TrEMBL record:
This is ATP synthase subunit O. It is found in: Membrane. Belongs to the ATPase delta chain family. It comes from the Eukaryota. Keywords: ATP synthesis, Hydrogen ion transport, Ion transport, Membrane, Transport. One of its GO terms (biological process) is ATP biosynthetic process. Transmembrane segments: none annotated. F-type ATPases have 2 components, CF(1) - the catalytic core - and CF(0) - the membrane proton channel. CF(1) has five subunits: alpha(3), beta(3), gamma(1), delta(1), epsilon(1). CF(0) has three main subunits: a, b and c. The keyword ATP-binding does not apply.
Amino acid sequence: MAMAGRLRSGLPFLRQVLTFDTPSAVAAQRCAASKSLLCPLTNTELSRDFATASASTEQKIKVPVTMFGVSGNYASALYIAAVKANVLDKVESELVDLVEASKRSLSFSQFMKDSSVTADTRVKAINEISTQAKFSEITKNFLAVVAENGRLSQLERVVQRFAELTMAHKGEVKVIVTSVIPLPQEEEKELKETLQDMIGQGKKVKVEQKIDPSILGGLVVEFGQKVFDMSIKTRARQMERFLREPVNLE
């Protein structure tokens, strides 16, 4: 009961903090994504078009979130191909399953990280896996490109970035809530409502709970580029720094 009370006490403070984070900041982020985007398919590593139809006859697709770096380039290219082929959910499911399978198989995990394996061997192995798993052509072709370019060791990060794009495509916002104990249903509902009010209509909040006893109590809420740390651990550190400051009695 005491722990639930501490969780409940942190929610009004979070609502107060979020009140100052006006929708204009969120709008600015969406505006940035609508600007001229980096086109990953022009990269020499991504020269293969994963879609089977001619790009000239299809509608130009823009990624909902601008991404950078190697993983962002691959994820963006895959997103465009999957949307064109109308297999976004299927591709995401297939890749998530593959990543989870690699975590359960030590030999497969080592194979993906081994840079000494030749490109031909990597591609042949990945093609066999894709065929046995009955992956879609988009997923199969994408994995072949990743294997050929020696990027299998980064596949998990690429899939994470791709998942971010699919969530944005569906209008979903992932919120990670860290607490000492699982968030009670009433507190989770209240937190969702608070975040929903801040984000606005048209977006759906998806809460992922994490348990971390080291924060001692309270909540840590993360979404987008924002982190609201209301943990007892952080408050204790702030108090400690305050108490160590010299006192001016003059």
